[in-house]
Write a structure and sequence with these properties.
single chain; 505 residues; mainly alpha; two-stranded antiparallel sheet; globular
């Protein structure tokens, strides 16, 4: 079912407002665009799910609705007052709650939503509305990055108009792209002092360490939260994967990898002995829990992040040392994973069938031919069926539906490789914007003497890590960490090395 006129108008309004917030330099225009985007996005999602049984049941519970509204408004008022009183609290709290989801039961079904982050973003916009500041100049690459992000948002809304899975596109716009773009705009406009950067890093390390402790507890107690399917899968393994307070152990591993990359940058640039000792302890704790997630893509992301730190700090000698560490770590992870002993266990190995999803995505794009009947797929394409759509793809958010209809009736939403997902959903048109975004982002975080600043080196390492992870798993544009890192990268690019935005060694 194609998008209706109202749905298309809502998607264009939400993404257009978010894109304006990212690109606009006038403060009043930017704040107005942020507010419009954050108002339209939830209305868009609500309209899409309004007639679903779980929402109908919830609509008939006025006490629940009233309680939720009171709690949300109260939290919003308190956060807004705090951000007006202490402006530096916004970035610290935004980064601290970045990965935290709240399980909400609606109509008998549980949805894990980034409610704390949404409230912090909304309060940040309200608090910012009263701040008057003239536009500040930026060099070429951050400006190009802003336009690439804006183009990504608008194109996603346009290509959702013909998507074979409009509801999923609406959810991506409402829950991810719109609020995260506003987060980028808020963080990119901040003045990051050394003290603020220090507090933000402490928040990242503290939350990651707390999540790691939960994961270690799960390992020894053989207990899991939020994801019963993972518990069932662990029964078929010789290893036990943990997910801490996350639903997906791979997403948990990616978050730990980003925290480790940031801590590694601080250790590489040195500091007081006491601080280095705390950093080493936190690094060891988080690394131990990362191993318990058994996420290959997260380990690859960590190695890429550490290699970036090594190159920026010690050039190629550092990268070589990190590469050796990575080879040993990956070998240990594979050995610890054991050898599958049955067909069922093979289906639930660490790879989890990602190669089949990636191949299916390339078939949908038109780069590979469909497998003939009898080749092992549950539902091969019919004879003469034209599957590949290389120019414009199947539409934004459509991968899962297109894969189910044309490749195999399997439950999925992405190919677990961001460029393949983009190719299948948005075709060559989307790939061109995606590549432009990567070029502008890498040039922004890695260019202009990134290695001269500890803060910029940490941002570069984390961004490279999340980029590598997205190539083997998923969650690039729909990961709040990506938008937060780019916002911080733009802000730090505005402050030359050696300024107050550089944490001294």
């Amino acid at each position: 079912m194609k998008a209706s006129a109202l749905e298309l108008l809502g998607m264009l309004g939400a993404c257009g407002g978010a894109a304006t917030a990212v690109i606009a330099r006038d403060r009043r225009v930017q704040v107005a665009a942020m507010a419009a985007a954050l108002v339209i996005a939830p209305i868009l999602v609500a309209g899409d799910v309004w007639d679903e049984p779980r929402v109908i049941d919830f609509r008939h519970s006025p006490a629940q609705i009233a309680a939720g509204a009171v709690l949300a408004i109260g939290a919003l008022v308190l956060l807004t007052a705090a951000f007006r009183r202490w402006p530096g609290a916004f970035p610290v709290l935004a980064v601290a709650v970045l990965p935290l989801r709240v399980p909400l039961e609606i109509g008998g079904e549980t949805a894990n939503l980034l409610v704390p982050l949404y409230l912090v973003i909304a309060a940040g916009v309200i608090a910012r509305a009263r701040v008057e500041r003239p536009p500040r100049s930026e060099d070429a690459w951050p400006t190009r990055l802003r336009w690439a992000l804006g183009a990504t948002l608008v194109l996603y809304a346009i290509q959702a108009s013909y998507s074979v899975d409009v509801p999923n596109a609406i959810e991506n716009i409402g829950f991810f792209l719109t609020p995260f773009a506003v987060l980028f705009a808020l963080l990119a406009d901040l003045d990051w002092s050394a003290a603020l950067l220090r507090r933000t890093l402490i928040a990242v390390a503290a939350v990651a360490a707390a999540c790691a402790l939960v994961g270690i507890y799960q390992y020894f107690a053989r207990d899991l939260f939020l994801n019963p399917e993972l518990f069932d899968a662990n029964e078929l393994h010789v290893y036990f994967r943990v997910n801490s307070v996350f639903f997906d152990p791979n997403v948990f591993g990616r978050y730990l990898a980003l925290a480790l990359a940031a801590i590694a940058a601080c250790l590489a640039w040195g500091g007081e002995r006491r601080e280095l000792g705390i950093g080493v302890a936190a690094f060891a704790l988080i690394l131990a829990c990362l191993a318990l997630s058994y996420s290959l893509t997260s380990f690859a992301a960590l190695i890429a992040g550490l290699a970036t730190v090594g190159i920026l700090r010690w050039r190629w000698r550092g990268a070589a040392a990190i590469a050796a560490f990575g080879v040993v770590s990956l070998a240990a992870l594979l050995i610890a994973g054991g050898t599958p002993t049955s067909d069922i266990q093979t289906d639930r190995s660490i790879d989890s069938g990602h190669s089949d999803l990636a191949r299916g995505g390339l078939v949908l794009f038109g780069l590979l031919d469909p497998e003939p009947p009898g080749a092992g797929v549950a539902r091969p394409p019919l004879a003469g069926e034209d599957v590949g759509r290389p120019i414009a793809g199947y539409g934004s958010g459509s991968f899962g539906r297109a894969f189910f209809d044309h490749i195999e009736p399997a439950r999925t939403t992405v190919s677990h490789s961001e460029p393949i997902t983009v190719a299948a959903e948005q075709g060559v048109i989307g790939l061109m914007v995606y590549v432009a975004l990567l070029v502008c982002a890498l040039a922004t975080v890695l260019g202009a003497s990134a290695g001269a600043s500890l803060a910029r080196a940490a941002v570069a390492a984390c961004f490279v890590a999340i980029l590598v992870d997205s190539l083997g798993y998923t969650g690039f544009a729909i990961d709040p960490a990506m938008w937060a890192l780019l916002g911080l990268g733009v802000a730090l690019r505005r402050s030359p090395p050696g300024s107050s935005a550089t944490i001294p060694a």
